[in-house]
């Protein structure tokens, strides 16, 4: 869940920078946040696929 937390942090930083008028920095933060979000989604799907092969927890 750390990756999702970093995505949210970069989203907040991008919004704050956009409100304050720092367009270039805001775009960079949004781009980094988008990349982290897609990495999080890929890892989530992979963990669901490979986590199903295990038996029930005792």
TrEMBL record:
Its main location: membrane. InterPro entries: DUF1328 (IPR009760). It is found in: Cell membrane. Pfam families: DUF1328. The keyword Transcription does not apply. Keywords: Cell membrane, Membrane, Transmembrane, Transmembrane helix. GO terms for cellular component: plasma membrane. It is a single-pass membrane protein. The chain crosses the membrane at residues 31-51. It comes from the Bacteria. The keyword Transmembrane helix applies. NCBIfam families: PRK13682.1-4 (NF010229). Belongs to the UPF0391 family. This is UPF0391 membrane protein GWA01_21750.
């Amino acid at each position: 869940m750390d990756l999702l937390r970093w995505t949210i942090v970069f989203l907040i930083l991008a919004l704050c920078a956009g409100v304050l008028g720092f367009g270039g920095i805001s775009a960079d933060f949004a781009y980094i946040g988008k990349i982290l979000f897609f990495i999080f989604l890929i890892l989530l799907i992979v963990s669901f696929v490979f986590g199903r092969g295990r038996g029930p927890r005792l």
